[in-house]
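User: For my dataset I need records formatted as: sequence, then structure tokens, nothing else. Please produce one.
Assistant:
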Amino acid sequence: MRTVELITCDDGKRRYISVEVRLAFASINELQSISRIHSAQSNSHTMLLDDESRKDVNISRRYARSLDAFKYLRCDPSTLNPSEIPHSPIITGVPEDLRHLITIFTVQRDVEGIGKDIDKCIQLVWPTLVPWLDFLHPKHRIRNARPSMIPLTDLCSVFGSIYALEDSAAQKKRAESQNLCDLLFDLWLHFDTYHVGESTDVLYCLHMLGDAVTEAMFVAGKDRRWEAEGGTRSEQESICQVSPPYISPVCAPAALSAVRYHPRRLYRKALVQIRLALAEAPESVPTAASIQILALTRLAMEVIPLLKPAHDIICDLVSILRTIASRDDGAYWTTGVALIVATIWVSARDERPIVWALRAGFLPLALGMPETGQKATILEAILGNAYHVRVLRALSLDGQIPAIFPSRPGDNPFTSSDAWLECRVKLMNDAYRDICDNVEYIYDAVLASMLHIARKIANELIGRRTRKTAARERKGHVT
């Protein structure tokens, strides 16, 4: 189902790659830049360094430099006596230590000389930080009915601040920590369950988790992987590699383990988080939702492509696309959701995902998107698979093909593509008439269908009789 082209990669080898994937990969960088602009417009997750904030930062820095720095967080949670856990001073002291850690990590760009404090904090707490995050994770509260020991908002802040660190030592440690990544993806994909019954800022938590997940996919973080490779890596070569070197080796196992190794369940849970973010702001597209969309797009394109998509996933994506299109500021993010759909088309093994999307009403929504490179990429993906009869049927549900490129000049090949589509539909309809007028063909088809049904019924009766006979023999043998 893919349209391919032969390209020469950086190593001199010539490979076939999907044109749709290459174009979508190029356009995803624009999508990420839109996300950064969108994030800059919302300061709900950014610490404003006014006098009070600077005072808090100075207190946390003095604490990090003291002899008793993070004394509770440096304890191993596995050494705690289970009977003393609810009333242990260590349990009550760890949340405060984590807040000091968050304060220091989140001002890495705003306070001069903070890098030394960050390095010291990482050296002090890293050996026990991940065990504590595991101990405080809400999965234990859900599965073992254990009381919550830290607000969910604080826990999301910890993950967000850890994965936002630009320090090379921190990046290396988190890229090698499978357990940390497991905890992050479990918290993200099951957040809709974990936040029930708690007083939680849902948009803030999803914002922090979405940013952390996007960072966790790459060894050096989403904004710094180009610099890490000298800025010379070509887009074509990155697509040709099955597992590019800039992709974190712990990300895919963590994402799959959170959903018991069912890729389609992974997509379903990610879509649940997008819907949760959209439900918190009914009239607009919140930054948290846009970051969830970006995270799922990256996941689908570069980490876990969906080779066998399900009908409900495609329809749910189209439904989310329709919801976003109805919002006041949804123009940017209709393109983002449509890119996820197009990425699934490219990864799938046949044309069924395109048919499902078209029957769910995808094409009118795609035609209503802003005129961008991403829109052209998505429409070209549909056009490149229009030779399939099922795609033609889905495109002409009312008997006519809509003009996919109506704004192009008359001599443009895209306009001729619309004419080609109309010709294909006419040929298909004429073929249907010829078949329906052929009485002998219809008789043979009906006879073959009846024989097939009769064979199935006979096999079922024989199987039922065989099972009854076997049951009688077993009963007689037992008696």
